[in-house]
Amino acid sequence: APVPTLNAEAALQDGELSLAGSWGFSWGRWLPLDQIGSADLSVDRVELPNYLVDLPIEGLAGRDGIVRGHGTYLLRLTHLDAAFVRPALSMRYARDAWQAWWVDDAGAVQLLGQSGQIAENAEDQAMRHKASLLILPSTSQGGTLVVYLSAYHSNHSGLYGDFTLREYDSAFRLILTDLLVRTFLIAVGIYATIQNMVFFLRRPQETTLLLLALFSGVSLSRAAFSSGYVDYFIAQPYWSIFFYKVEYILIFWPAIAGLQLLLGFFPVRSGRQLMRLTYGLFALAILATAIAPMSSVTAHLWAYQLALLFFTLLCLLTIIRGLILRLPDARHFLLSATPLMMAVINDVIAGQLASYNLYVTEYALFLFLFVQTQIQSARFVDALKTSEHLSAHLGEEVALKTRQLRLHNELLTEQAEDLSHQNDEIKLIAETDHLTGLLNRQTLDKLSELQFQLAIGYRQPLALVIMDLDHFKAINDTHGHLVGDECLIFVASFLRGYKLRKRDIIARFGGEELVILLADTDLDMALSMAQDLCVNLAKTPVRGDHPDITLTASFGVAELISSRANSVHQLIGFADQALYQAKQRGRNRVSAYTRPAADRRSTTPGAV
Ligand SMILES: Nc1nc2c(ncn2[C@@H]2O[C@H](COP(=O)(O)OP(=O)(O)OP(=O)(O)O)[C@@H](O)[C@H]2O)c(=O)[nH]1
């Protein structure tokens, strides 16, 4: 069949001409350029979009089912100069290396451009531009467009439908627009990567932030690698295989990272083992992709997409489980992950049909990343604010608590002091006689026993004086009991006013009987003291309302060594005997206990 012809002027609508439609095609040959114009050139007819694998080429498929080969595409264009001022051919989605020529009606030949190094062997070809903008000679009225397609490593190789003739300016604007959108995506990726990284460095325990940073970083690289227009400006032919392979690996990596992110929020049992296994498989996939020839990598696109679908479904299941268990965040994850899921499905279908790919996945991925980054960083900032707030208020709080504690301590100390006072008081009440304030009988018993033991131990004298008021009953009877009490109080203060040593004890023995225990005092000293007391008491009128009353008392004195008393009890008894004697002798006097002469041999007590 002859080379198909397209009337540019007639086909042009809105300044754009699609080259989809009938093309001439020669399989397995790169037709020499000087044959293009010859009348006996015969070609097959194919329709664009065209993929070699869909061609009915029998017997060319290898054992692996992949058709290998190369060929020449041809299209005659007429009335070009009438349709365009500066026609430009926009070539996209030719998956293998190509070379384009223009042979005008006069037979002049011009190389329009090439994607890199074309070769009859797939591994030898070097791809540079996946997209190209070729400028056609604007002076040509007509000519033939010749595209040599290199050997291919993709089962969807060939010329795709996105071949258009445009005015150069509008075509270039399209490239710039695409570039701008991609630059925007890449900027979002850089932003998300840096933001997550910075926040992670400030709070290393938030591994989610690191994961998001990694996620954004890799997606960013993928967006950069897979952009035909980035290729157009920077890619080098010998890097093409590497970029191609990286792009394949990155097909399903986002779903794995997404799974890890989600498992962080909605943990499952043996989630760690699952992730370890997943990353193990991922490492194997990287290894296999790295060592396999490019043709076999592209032949297994379905496997990469299957992995993408599988891990995406796992992500979805994780979110659904979170929703069922009513875990926090499940809703917003479902919201931000839904477009991602849909985009993934779109990507898988588009990849398998090899139809026009809108890169929806990438846009959705970046959207997802951006939203997640903002949500996570909002949480992070919240946490940061809370911790700053806490640390700012901690000082104040500590100072306040310290103050409260100190107050509390002071209160406790006061209470303890009160208690100790109360104790002292109780002790005082227990130890003293409430009327006179002198020591009571029990205390006297305790202390006198102690003094007795000390005196024995140190072989010191110990004197005991019992004093009994004379005719006290008469005072009570005459003046009343209350006056009697006042008299007792007066005697007590009289005794207290008398110069006694600290060790000496004055106690109320009972009724109107008082005892004075004098440590380290012999009989003579005790007698003289008692005498002194006796004389002075008789001279001293009762203070207060009853100066008319003058009291006298009788005194009985006994001393430990001279009396040879063998207990306090006995010593008291001896003093009592002496007192009795004093009373007998007429009262208001002092009497000492002396051992009777008979007793100096026997033990019968007596008083003098
Ligand atoms: N007001 C008052 N009287 C008391 C108290 N204890 C004892 N008496 C009185 O003291 C008096 C003691 O009387 P007696 O034992 O007969 O001895 P007395 O009248 O002092 O006579 P002699 O001791 O023999 O000189 C009694 O009338 C008791 O009621 C007291 O606490 N207050």
TrEMBL record:
Protein keywords: Membrane, Signal, Transmembrane, Transmembrane helix
Cofactor: Mg(2+)
Enzyme Commission number(s) of this protein: 2.7.7.65
Enzyme class, broadest EC rank: transferase
CDD domains according to UniProt: GGDEF
Residue intervals passing through the bilayer: 179-201, 208-230, 242-265, 277-295, 301-320, 332-350
Gene3D superfamilies named among the record's database cross-references: 3.30.70.270
Catalysis performed (reactions): 2 GTP = 3',3'-c-di-GMP + 2 diphosphate
Any one GO molecular function term: diguanylate cyclase activity
Matching SMART domains: GGDEF
Annotated ranges, domain GGDEF: 460-595
Domain of life: Bacteria
Protein name per its UniProtKB record: diguanylate cyclase
